[in-house]
């Protein structure tokens, strides 16, 4: 079990997600990852946004916590600089990693209910608050 920090980036009725293709499954996740030693959940979200997306963010309030193989923290955040899709984390550079593909993208909020997004409860909360 590992704690994770994730970023929720919203803009123009869209949210940034990572499209995963792993073991024959296609699903979507919020950008984020494991909290490293000495790191807080919000700092993990900030680091992971840079690694996975290629953007620097300002982390705002905690949007929610989900218990799944450890506690996952989700933070509302704003992009300060950078361009989505320019991340250079190990997901993109380690060819021996063998954990499927990662494709960062903007997804319309109203599409969240028709895609396989994990965790679903965070997506539902976003849709509820923005409807």
UniProtKB/TrEMBL annotation:
It comes from the Bacteria. Pfam families: NUDIX. This is Mutator mutT protein. Residues 1-130 form the Nudix hydrolase domain. Keywords: Hydrolase. The keyword Hydrolase applies. Its cofactor is Mg(2+). Belongs to the Nudix hydrolase family. It comes from Gracilibacillus orientalis. GO terms for molecular function: hydrolase activity.
């Amino acid at each position: 079990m590992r704690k994770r920090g994730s970023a929720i980036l919203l803009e123009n009725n869209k949210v940034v997600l990572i499209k995963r293709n792993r073991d024959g499954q296609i699903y979507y996740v919020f950008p984020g990852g494991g909290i490293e030693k000495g790191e807080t959940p919000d700092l993990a979200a900030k680091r992971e946004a840079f690694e996975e997306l290629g953007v620097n963010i300002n982390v705002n309030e905690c949007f929610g916590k989900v218990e799944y193989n450890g506690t996952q923290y989700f933070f509302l955040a704003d992009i300060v600089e950078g361009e989505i899709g320019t991340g250079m984390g190990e997901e993109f550079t380690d060819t021996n990693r063998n954990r499927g593909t990662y494709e960062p993208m903007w997804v319309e909020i109203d599409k969240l209910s028709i895609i396989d997004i994990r965790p679903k409860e965070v997506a539902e909360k976003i849709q509820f608050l923005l409807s």
